């Protein structure tokens, strides 16, 4: 195990508070927690790709970043009435 894999495992622990906010808080706080969790997941994927030495896996992290940003915008647009 190298430092990138350890950093990815440590960052995964930061997702649990985001999940609690998504479940328990109001919609606007849930959207902010979703965006934070998506950023953490992208960083975890990039750290794992670097840690295991697979340069082709960086594409997954970048693609997921773009898709999660778009998904957040779609979610906000669909929930616009309650925000």
Any overview of this molecule?
With 83 residues, the protein is mostly helical. The protein has one domain (3-78). It is 80% helix and 0% strand. It is built from four helices and no strands. It is flat.
Range of helix content: over 70%
H-E order: HHHH
Task: Please give the number of β-strands.
Answer: 0
Mean pLDDT over the full residue set: 86
Our count of domains comes out at: 1
Question: Rg, please?
Answer: 14 Å
SS-based class: mainly alpha
The N- and C-terminal alpha carbons lie at a distance of: 44 Å
Outline type: flat
Tally the helices: what do you get?
Answer: 4
**Uncertain regions spanning at least 5 consecutive residues:** none
Largest sheet: none
Strand residue content: under 5%
What can be said about this structure in brief?
The chain has 83 residues and is mainly α.
List the helices and strands and how they pair.
Blueprint: H1 3-12, H2 15-24, H3 27-51, H4 58-78
Which key terms come to mind for this protein?
single chain; 83 residues; mainly alpha
């Amino acid at each position: 195990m190298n430092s990138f894999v350890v950093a990815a495992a440590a960052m995964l622990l930061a997702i649990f508070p985001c999940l609690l906010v998504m479940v328990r808080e109001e919609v606007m706080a849930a959207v902010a927690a979703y965006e934070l969790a998506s950023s953490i997941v992208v960083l975890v994927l990039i750290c794992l790709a670097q840690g295991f030495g697979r340069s082709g896996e960086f594409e997954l992290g970048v693609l997921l970043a773009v898709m999660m940003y778009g998904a957040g915008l779609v979610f906000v647009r669909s929930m616009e009435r309650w925000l």
